Amino acid sequence: MGAFLLSACGSAGKASGSDSASVADSASVEVSVPQFDVDSAMSYLRHQVELGPRVPNTSAHRAAIDWLAAELRRHGAEVTLQPCDLTAYDGTLLHAVNIMGSYNPDLDDRLLLLAHFDTRPWADQDPDPANHSKPIDGANDGASGVAVLLETARAIARQNPEIGIDILMVDAEDYGAENDEESWALGTKYFATHPIKPDYRPTRAILLDMVGGKGAIFPAEYFSRESAPLIDDAFRRAAAAAGHGSLFPARMGSAVTDDHVELIKVGIPAIDIIDYRDSGFCPTWHTLSDNLDNIDPATLKAVGESLLYYIYNR
Fold this sequence. Notes:
Blueprint: E1 5-7, H1 38-51, H2 59-74, E2 78-87, E3 93-103, E4 110-116, H3 143-158, E5 164-170, H4 186-193, E6 204-209, H5 222-227, H6 229-241, E7 255-257, H7 259-265, E8 270-274, H8 297-312
Parallel strand pairs: 1-7, 4-5, 4-6, 6-8
Antiparallel strand pairs: 2-3, 3-5
Helix pairs in contact: 1-3, 1-8, 3-8, 4-7, 6-8
């Protein structure tokens, strides 16, 4: 791996996890894959941005929670809300809510798909210091992963893949301090240590983070390879079969402290599909430029089609 250890939203971290995957990852049966409608995904992304920065304890954040739960229900999911009051690194009490939509809830073997819906309260990486106290739109860092998952939910509603799937919109990921890795991913940390349903435990998990940027590339992430190489391999094979192999190269990117690490810590194999380039994260990361102008629908489509191919050809 490279020498850099970076966080999706802050500092680097180290995690451990089991090297396991479902038997379903080792064999696949070719089935029809529903279409990923990128125009629909862009509409989902645009609506989030139009709500305003989804910073915990704001009206835009509360509106996002209501809308996400309603959309998952509209697409036939059994929706469970997990309210949690979380203390941020600076002492702020964050009134957070994790939102999960379940398909085929009676099946024990469960694939968890997740993305964070909250946004960074400060554009602390913006090249203009005058912007460092301003909240970001989070078009890519937050809204893109959610948009892909909502369109995935819409596809599942049209064509049941007959496997257990949980779609999790996780909260309070982006309210962290640069040099404090434990201050990030608070919503997922709570989810991992407080089962959202009695005895709930997914078999495997796929995290989507910053999956809509222009010029995006998704190399393997170190903790993902350590935790779940079979899942990571299966996803990259699916991406190649869907015609997007060039965006998912079989080379190591870096070690990223992100939501998936909190799942790995409790023994859930998890991978992170995240835009990581030779220079680090995408140039709009934690800046005011993380807006609709810097979203590429082709990137959203590539990730969405790859995910659907993974789900439906297992």
